[in-house]
Amino acid sequence: MFRTDGLAGDERAIEGLPIRLVVALVVGVAGLSVMLNMLSGLSGLGVTELDVRPTPEVTSPGAQAVTVRVVGSDGRAVSNATVVARGDTARIDGVATARTNGSGGATLELAPSLPPNRATGTLRFEVKPPAGGSYADRRENTAVLVVRE
C-alpha cells in the first residue's frame, strides 16, 4: 500500500517542518531588528513638521501687529523660516511675509477685515522651512480668528 523508498512513505517530513519555520522566523526577526537599528541611527531620514503659534490668536479687524512663533513638532523654535499670512474667511490685502529670528519669532503687520454680514473669519499661515533643514509644512497651521466687536 505505502511505498517506503521515498518521501511518500516518510512520516517524519511533517515533524521537521515546524522547526524549520521557527528557525527561519527567528533568523528573519533578528535580521530585521539589526536593519531597523541601523536605520534609526540615521538622522537624515526624519522630517519635522512645523507649526505656527500666533499671538494673539483672537483679534479684531483693523491694522495691528501679529507675532508668530514657528516651532517643530517637539516644540523647539525654528529660525530662518519664512512665514506667509493669507486671508481665509477674513481678508487681508495681498499676503504678508516675515522671516523668523533666532528664537523662532516673527512679526507681521496685518490689517484684517471681515466681509459684510460676517461676524467672524480666519487668517491662515504657511511656513517655508529654512534651507538645508529636515523640516516640512504639510499640515494646516494654527489660524488667527478675527471677530467683529
UniProtKB/TrEMBL annotation:
Residues 45-108 form the DUF7382 domain. The chain crosses the membrane at residues 21-45. Keywords: Carboxypeptidase, Hydrolase, Membrane, Protease, Transmembrane, Transmembrane helix. One of its GO terms (molecular function) is carboxypeptidase activity. It comes from the Archaea. This is Carboxypeptidase regulatory-like domain-containing protein. It comes from Salinirubellus salinus.
